[in-house]
Amino acid sequence: MHFVGKLILAFLPEPEKIIKFLLIAFFIPALLLILLFAGPITAYERVPLATPSQIKIYVDAAVKVSESTKNPYSEGVKVDWKPLVAIDAVRFMQDFSKSTPAGAEKLAEMFIEKTDEIEVKEGDPPVTKRYPIYRLKSLDEVLDYLKFSAQEKEKVKEFLSIDLSFLFVADSGVLDGWIPLEGSLKWPLPGVYKITSRYGPRIDPVYGGSGFHRGIDIAAATGTPVVAAADGRVAYAGWCGGYGIAVFIWHGDGMETRYAHLSGTAVRQGAVVKAGDIIGYVGSTGKSTGPHLHLEVRVGGKAVNPLDFFK
Question: Locate the M23ase beta-sheet core domain: which residues (predicted)?
Fold first, then answer.
């Protein structure tokens, strides 16, 4: 620091040396401290601080309001739960203890608007019935209705700039620093152990509502090699609906493993593989909200918890 000070003084005009040196000596360290803490604070403020149970309030509200717009003559509109969370993160200043099912439902209703209705005669004797037709309002329309300031609008959109689906995950089922114990099965992503969604009941991360997750999701970068968990024969390799690009491997004795949402495959149907052979690469194809590997283990055709094989 002394050397740096002398170097700075050497280049300063004579009358200003002492004042400027003091500014450098005291204000630059202070600035560095501000910058040091600003990063974590900024990151902290970019994520809604809601628990999975609080998130479920918004998911349920979005589903309920969406269903209310359907009728025999209209498919209705789909209200997304994520803007609801982002709006209340701003309205409640991150205090989601203020969220209620009624409040979330009222907010979800702000996203729908009746635009027309269909009048039909049904029954015998005929009875006139009217079925409303709705449209989905834009986020800006709702924010204007709520009288959000420009700064508040920007904050809502900042929350929505990241994928909020991870907020569903209450418990991955493993502790931080967990490493799988390989036995009859080999871990499909060597060195990558970040589980973002466990086996069992959960809220659907794409459509909302309750569901059952038949495998585990392991977060990894797109292109990360995926290896076979055991010796076997490739029963399927290619596109498979919600699985996206997937590889299914038959291991015999009623056991099958499935690897889904791949960006590409490295094997073909019918190929014989050994445990540890590369069979594909992590991606985000099919029904997916971000790059990860969905791993399923099936015994006798029934999905079982993959983590049971790595304890």
Answer: 212-306
Tokens of 231: 């010796």
Residue 38: which domain range?
2-45
As a whole number of angstroms, the distance between CA 192 and CA 200 comes to 21
**Is there a single domain that holds both residue 177 and residue 302?**
yes
d(CA 11, CA 185) in angstroms, rounded, equals 67
pLDDT band at 61; cut points 50, 70, 90: very high
Instruction: Give the span between the Cα atoms of 279 and 272, in whole angstroms.
Output: 11
* Statement to judge: residues 208 and 118 lie in one domain: no
Long-range own/partner contacts, residues 149-158 (CB < 8 A, 24 or more apart): 152/90, 155/89, 155/90, 156/83, 156/86, 156/87, 156/89, 156/90, 157/86, 158/46
Asked if 217 and 193 count as a contact pair (C-beta separation under 8 A), the reply is: no
- Collapsed DSSP state (helix, strand, coil) of residue 177: coil
The angle that helices 17-45 and 2-10 make with each other, rounded to 10 degrees, is: 120
Number of domains into which the chain is organized: 3
Whether pLDDT at 31 is above 90: no
> Does residue 265 contact residue 245 with C-beta atoms inside 8 Å?
yes
Distance of CA 116 to the CA centre of its chain: 35
Looking at residue 125, its amino acid is P
Identify the residue whose tokens are 């009358």.
15
Q: Are 246 and 220 in contact (CB under 8 A)?
A: no
CA-to-CA distance for 227 and 220, rounded, in angstroms?
A: 13
For residue 214, the one-letter residue type is: R
21 with 137, same domain: the answer is no
Cross-strand bridge partners of residue 182: none
